[in-house]
Structure formats: C-alpha cells, structure tokens
Fold:
Amino acid sequence: MSIAAANTSMRVPAGFRNLLEGLAREVLREQPTDVVAFAAQYFQKLLESREAGGIDPVAWGAMLEDDRLTWPPSEEAKDTEG
Structure:
C-alpha cells in the first residue's frame, strides 16, 4: 500500500497494518476512556514481550501480511513447507 504525498509516495512498513489492527481490536474490546494512554500501555506491553524473548509482533505481522499478499501459496512455496 502506498500513500501519495505531493510528488512522492510513501510505503507503509511491513507489519504496520497488522500492528494497528491489533491495537484497534483491543480498543474496541476494552473501550478505554483515554485511548492514547491505552495505546501507550498496549505498545509498552508489546515491547516488554519482545524484549523478554517473545515473538516480535511487527515481524509476525509482516509475515501475515506477506502470506495474504501471496495467497494462495505458489507451488514453489508449498514444496518448501513440507
């Protein structure tokens, strides 16, 4: 996805869409009164999880987005999976 800005186009970084979808889902679920503070806490928890050796949500989201872009997987990709 690219966004036109004057004569340039900017690309949304890999994993960004998935990251924001996760935040939006949690905001809708929790209905916080202070969305900015909630978002800060949400991202802080993601950072702590990543630093503790968990999965990097941005890398995971990028992988998911890539899978969506290449669905159905090519025959070549199927051969490498199993």
Q: What stands out?
A: The beta strands are 2-5, 8-11. DSSP finds four helices and two strands in the chain. Residues 35-51 form the longest helix (17 residues). The longest strand covers residues 2-5.
